[in-house]
Design goal:
alpha+beta; Bactericidal permeability-increasing protein, domain 1; Bactericidal permeability-increasing protein, domain 2; 2 domains; 7-stranded mixed β-sheet; 7-stranded antiparallel β-sheet
C-alpha cells in the first residue's frame, strides 16, 4: 500500500490535456527518498518469493564417468539490497535501480554414479552483485486513475557460488562451475519478471485514488489527471482536475482555471496547490443546489443578546411594523443570490457573498407575512487548515453592506437595521457556516495515506499545502 502511494506521484503519465489544472501536486527529493525506502522494503519482500526450479541432468566427470545429479527444494534464506536509487529523468520519467544486491539460498542435492552408488546432501547458494534497472511507466484509465508497469528492465548477476555439504559433495565440486553457470542464468532470468510483478501488483491499490471523492449528499470533487507530469532533475509536478460537481450532474461553471505554478520550496515531501478555481467551483455547485440558505428564528439567538427577532425590535426602527404587527416574532430568511467568490491574495483569503435577507412576521396561525427584503453584500475573511485528509476552514465577518430591495411596510432607513443584521450574522450565520466548513473537503489521497508536519499558505490565486507523508503498513 505504501509503495503504491509513492508510484502514483513519481511515475510517467501517458495522458495529455490542454486544460489547466485546478490542483497541482509536487513531489520533492525528500518525498522521492521516502518513497525509495518504502519501495525497497516492498521489492525485498517480492524477491523472497523467487522460485528456482529443480535442476537435473547428466555430466561426465573424469575419472568417474557419467554422473546423474539433481538439485531440488531450493529456497530463499536471505535478501539484501544495500544499494538502490531513483533517478528523475527530465522530460522523460523515472528510473529505478538496484545495485550490489545479494541473495542466499539453500537446497538439497542427489547424485548417482557408477550405476549403483547413490548419495545426497545439502547445498548453500550465494548470489552476489545482483543489479536491476527499470523504468516505471504509468498511464491513465478511462476514469483518470493510474495504472503502472515496468518497462525497459535489465538484470545482471555478477556471480553465483554453490557450496555442497555432506556425502559425496566432493563429487559436485568437480563440476560446480557448470552448476554455477546454470543457476546464474536461472536467477538472472527471474529478476525482471519479479520486479515487473511487484509494480503491477500495485494497480489494485492505485484504484483507491479518490478521483471522484464524495463531499456530502450534494457535492463531489474530481481529482482525475488532466496532463502529463513535468519532470525535472529535482521534482515532479502532477496536474489534477480539482473541480466540484453536483452529485450525478456534472455541469461546468461559467469560469475556467487559470495557469499557476508552484513555488520552488523543498522542505516538505509534498506540496499541493489548490487554485481559487477549485474552491469557486464549490460555491457554484452549492449555489446551484439551492442550499446556501438559512432560516433564522428568535430561538437561534443566544438568550444573553439584547436583540430579539420580534416586531418590537424591528418596530423601534420601522414604526409601521410595530403598528401593523404588534407582539409577533420575526423570521429571517438569508440566502445567496449569486455564486460566492473566493479570492486568494498573499496571506489573505476572502469570500464575497451577495445575498438577500427577507423578514417575515410570524402570525399566530404560523403563516408568514413578508415585511421587507434587503440586499446583502458581505465580505468574510477565511482561515484555512488541514484536518486529517481534508481541507477545512473557518470564516469571520469583515464588512457588510445593506440596501433596500422591497418594502411591504413603507420607506425606512436601511442603515438603522445594520446593528441587528450584524448581530444575526455574527451570532447565527457565521457559526452555522463554520460548522459546515469544519467538516472539511477531501484532499487527493491513496489508501491509508496520512499527512504530517503540514503547513498552509495563501498565495496569489491559490493556496499551498506543504506536508510530509506517511503510509500505514
Amino acid at each position: 500500500m505504501s509503495l503504491c502511494g509513492w508510484f502514483i506521484l513519481v511515475a510517467l503519465i501517458s495522458t495529455t490535456s490542454s486544460k489547466n489544472p485546478g490542483v497541482k501536486v509536487k513531489l520533492t527529493q525528500k518525498g522521492i527518498e521516502y518513497g525509495r525506502q518504502l519501495g525497497m522494503a516492498s521489492i525485498q519482500q517480492k524477491l523472497k518469493t523467487i522460485k528456482i526450479p529443480d535442476m537435473s541432468g547428466k555430466q561426465r566427470v573424469s575419472p568417474i564417468g557419467k554422473v546423474r545429479y539433481s538439485l531440488s527444494n531450493i529456497q530463499i534464506v536471505n535478501v539484501a539490497l544495500p544499494q538502490s536509487g531513483v533517478t528523475l529523468v527530465p522530460g522523460t520519467g523515472v528510473r529505478l535501480s538496484i545495485g550490489n544486491a545479494n541473495l542466499s539460498l539453500r537446497g538439497r542435492w542427489r547424485v548417482k554414479y557408477l550405476r549403483i552408488i547413490k548419495d545426497r546432501g545439502s547445498f548453500d547458494l550465494s548470489v552476489t552483485g545482483l543489479g536491476i534497472g527499470t523504468s516505471i511507466a504509468v498511464k491513465s484509465d478511462e476514469r483518470g486513475r493510474p495504472a503502472v508497469s515496468a518497462v525497459n528492465c535489465a538484470a545482471t548477476v555478477s556471480s553465483v557460488r554453490v557450496k555442497f555439504h555432506g556425502g559425496a559433495s566432493w563429487l559436485y565440486n568437480l563440476f560446480k562451475k557448470f552448476i554455477n553457470r546454470a543457476l546464474q542464468k536461472t536467477v538472472q532470468k527471474q529478476m525482471c519478471p519479479l520486479v515487473a510483478n511487484a509494480i503491477s501488483d500495485l494497480n489494485p491499490q492505485l484504484q483507491t485514488l479518490n478521483v471522484l471523492a464524495k463531499v456530502d449528499k450534494h457535492a463531489e470533487i474530481e481529482y482525475s489527471m488532466v496532463a502529463s507530469p513535468t519532470v525535472t532533475s529535482s521534482s515532479l509536478d502532477l496536474s489534477l482536475k480539482g473541480e466540484f460537481y453536483n452529485i450525478g450532474r456534472h455541469q461546468e461553471p461559467p469560469f475556467s482555471p487559470v495557469a499557476f505554478s508552484l513555488p520552488p520550496q523543498i522542505n516538505n515531501m509534498l506540496y499541493m496547490g489548490m487554485s481559487s478555481f477549485t474552491v469557486n467551483s464549490a460555491g457554484f455547485v452549492y449555489n446551484r443546489a439551492g442550499i446556501l440558505t438559512l432560516s433564522i428564528t428568535d430561538d437561534m439567538i443566544p438568550k444573553i443578546s439584547p436583540i430579539r427577532l420580534s416586531t418590537g425590535t424591528f418596530g423601534t426602527f420601522i414604526p409601521e411594523i410595530r403598528r401593523r404587527f404588534p407582539g409577533l416574532m420575526v423570521k429571517l430568511q438569508v440566502k445567496t443570490v449569486k455564486d460566492p467568490v473566493v479570492t486568494f491574495e498573499p496571506n489573505n483569503a476572502t469570500i464575497q457573498v451577495t445575498g438577500s435577507v427577507t423578514a417575515f412576521a410570524i402570525q399566530p396561525n404560523s403563516t408568514l407575512t413578508p415585511l421587507f427584503v434587503l440586499n446583502l453584500d458581505t465580505s468574510v475573511s477565511t482561515k484555512l487548515f488541514v484536518s486529517g485528509m481534508t481541507l477545512a476552514g473557518s470564516v469571520s465577518l469583515n464588512k457588510m453592506a445593506l440596501t433596500l430591495g422591497t418594502s411591504y411596510v413603507g420607506q425606512f432607513q436601511v442603515s438603522s437595521l445594520s446593528s441587528i443584521l450584524s448581530v444575526v450574522l455574527r451570532l447565527v450565520v457565521i457559526p452555522q457556516v463554520n460548522v459546515q466548513l469544519a467538516k472539511g473537503y477531501p484532499l487527493p489521497a491513496i489508501g491509508k495515506m496520512k499527512l504530517v508536519n503540514t503547513q498552509v499558505q495563501v498565495l496569489k490565486d491559490y493556496m499551498l499545502i506543504g506536508t510530509d507523508v506517511q503510509f500505514a503498513r
